[in-house]
């Protein structure tokens, strides 16, 4: 698992901007963990329909260690 810290600024719906921080990525660039500007926003993104449980667990540990409340996560069905 590659831990990185790439800070970007993205626009959501026109004039609304937010921080988009790439925090971790697997070596094959298939899955990525992204933090927002504060602990209100977190994304676990995958190029695949499902993310391996081992990757999800690693991402959740990184998020918990960074102060994110994992009970607030909303899991989408693909």
TrEMBL record:
Q: Which Pfam families does the protein's record reference? A: Lipocalin_2 (PF08212)
Recorded hits in InterPro entries, A to Z, give: Calycin (IPR012674), Lipocalin_bac (IPR002446), Lipocln_cytosolic_FA-bd_dom (IPR000566)
Stated name of the protein: Lipocalin family protein
Q: Signal peptide span per the entry? A: none
Instruction: Enumerate the spans annotated as Lipocalin/cytosolic fatty-acid binding domain.
Output: 6-78
């Amino acid at each position: 698992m590659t831990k990185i810290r790439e800070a970007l600024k993205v626009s959501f719906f026109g004039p609304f901007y937010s921080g988009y921080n790439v925090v971790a990525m697997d070596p094959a660039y298939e899955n990525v963990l992204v933090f927002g500007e504060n602990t209100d926003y977190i994304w676990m993104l995958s190029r695949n329909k499902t993310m391996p449980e081992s990757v999800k667990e690693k991402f959740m540990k990184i998020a918990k260690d960074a102060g994110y409340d994992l009970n607030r996560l909303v899991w989408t069905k693909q």
